[in-house]
Amino acid sequence: MSTDLARPDLAGAQADYDALVAQGMKLDLTRGKPSAAQLDLSSAILGLPGERYKADDGTDTRNYQGLQGLKELREIFAPSLQVPVDQLIAFGNSSLELMHDTLVHALLSPLPGAERRWVDEERVVFLAPTPGYDRHFAVCDRLGIELLAVPMTPDGPDMDVVERLVAEDPSIKGIWCVPKYANPDGVVYSDETTRRLAAMPTAAPDFRIMWDNAYAVHHLTEDAIEVADVLALADAAGNADRPFVFGSTSKITLAGAGVAFLGASPANVKWWLALTGKRTIGPDKVNHLRHALFFGDAAGVAAHMARHRELIAPKFAVLEKILTENFADTPGVSWSSPKGGYFVTLTVPEGTATEIVRLAREAGIALTPAGATHPGGEDPQDAIIRLAPTFPPLEEVEKAMTGVAVCVKLALAQQA
Ligand code: PLP
To answer: Is residue 127 in a domain?
Structure first.
């Protein structure tokens, strides 16, 4: 396979591709999941809490109640999520579930500061910084919330566009934000972006920021990047109720059996707990205790994340190496080099992403469908491909990515 030519001729690219198909690969770069080796880092959690069931404050974790979640676990995660302990809720195993429920609650019961329930509005619109996370978009699709794409910049959403839209249209009720190591482009919001989001005037009195800090501690380098404190900035700007902060241990401990968190203003927390108290008597506090004992403190979380980094940073490095070797000088091909998180965004010349994903599929390499990063699954440029290297073993990431490079070259040669 030739890897030295930035833009091979069609015959050469086709021959490389045919050789790739002949290998009969079965590889997958679609899944933003921890690998089995990463899950093994948390094996000890399966043996916890052992015989112990009492929390530090004497709570019997086996029993009902404690809707806000175990305090000792909230204390451990409050600093990384930048939420005061009393304003932090520890809940079930999925932050996506908390986001979904928050929007359902807002549809059915007026939010603090709202004039009416969102179901009683003519339209409810959310801004979707794009490319973004498809499951955010799916929640809105499911609930009848319209999505309006806004462009991303290297500092976060294009704030000139966001400020203009929210100032003039009261049906815009919210914005999705993944402030750190965003899914899929790895962008980290600048302090100025966060400040403007927290302070901007909005036509809707009940505008909300869905601050999904899913990758708060998921650094790929020694540089533990911090974003600005959105709750504090919103409070200082007189918009204390604007942000809902989310996070979870899905990619820290066990993706299917972790703990999710929600943080917000005291008024939002009270609203959320009152409504959620109608659907459950309390979360799984045994799992909270298990997590608190496993970590001990916030430093325990950081030490644990360093072990994740050792396992996954080499996979990102291999992607970077193969992309650089093959496309450093190719016009129209660029990629993100994230300092954390779970994804790399590959940008290819307009109109080629779907074809590249198809070629890869025919060669046995599964890629996330082109368009998945856009509202409605439609990328008008057909230029963005999301790569997820964490789940397969390192050798498979290397093989799959080498194959993807062959597919990109064939698609470019076909287009030339
Ligand atoms: N938010 C983002 C940005 C994600 O990328 C993911 C998973 O990939 C989630 C939320 C899902 O989180 P959870 O497992 O807590 O539901």
So the answer is: yes
What pLDDT is recorded for position 3? 45
pLDDT for position 29: 94
- Cβ of 133 below 6 Å from ligand 1: yes
Q: Establish whether residue 130 lines the binding site of ligand 1, counting it when its CB lies within 6 angstroms of any ligand atom.
A: no
Distance of alpha carbon 134 from alpha carbon 144, whole angstroms: 15
User: What CATH number did the domain enclosing 81 receive?
Assistant: 3.40.640.10
Is there a single domain that holds both residue 22 and residue 96? Answer: no
- ipTM at complex level: 0.99
Structural domain ending residue among the three candidates 251, 279, 296: 296
Q: Give tens-digit pLDDT for 345-401.
A: 999 999 999 999 999 999 999 999 999 999 999 999 999 999 999 999 999 999 999
Please give the tally of structural domains in the chain: 2
In this structure, the answer to whether residues 102 and 192 fall within a common structural domain is yes
Res. 8: pLDDT tops 90:
no
> Is residue 255 one of the residues assigned to a domain?
yes
Task: Please choose from 89, 136, 183, 386 the residue to mutate so as to test ligand 1's pocket, defined by most ligand atoms within 8 A of CB.
Answer: 183
Q: What is the DSSP letter of 110?
A: P
- CB of 213 within 6 A of ligand 1: the answer is no
Residue 139, pLDDT above cutoff 50 = yes
Residue 103 has φ and ψ, to the nearest 5°, of -70, -40
Q: Are residues 129 and 66 in the same domain?
A: yes
Sheet with 344-347: list strands edge to edge: 334-335, 344-347, 384-387
Pick the residue whose CA is nearest to atom 4 on ligand 1: 214
Q: What are phi and psi of 281, to 5 degrees?
A: -85, -20
Asked if residue 248 has its Cβ within 6 Å of ligand 1, the reply is yes
Residue 166 alpha carbon to ligand 1 centre in Å:
26
> Do residues 282 and 310 share a domain?
no
**Inter-residue contact 72 to 56 (CB < 8 Å):** yes
> Looking at ligand 1, which residue's alpha carbon is closest to its atom 7?
32
Q: Of the candidates 173, 8, 201, which has an alpha carbon nearest to the alpha carbon of residue 103?
A: 173
Q: Ligand 1 in contact with 129 (CB < 6 A)?
A: no
Are 118 and 173 within 8 A, CB to CB?
A: yes
Q: How far apart are CA 4 and CA 54, in angstroms?
A: 62
Domain that includes residue 288, residue range:
51-296
Out of 263, 296, 329, a domain closes at: 296
**pLDDT, tens digit, for every residue of 287-323?**
999 999 999 999 999 999 999 999 999 999 999 999 9
User: Is the predicted pLDDT of residue 4 greater than 80, yes or no?
Assistant: no
pLDDT digits (tens, 9 = 90+) for 322-344: 999 999 999 999 999 999 999 99
Q: Tell me whether residue 1 is in a domain.
A: no
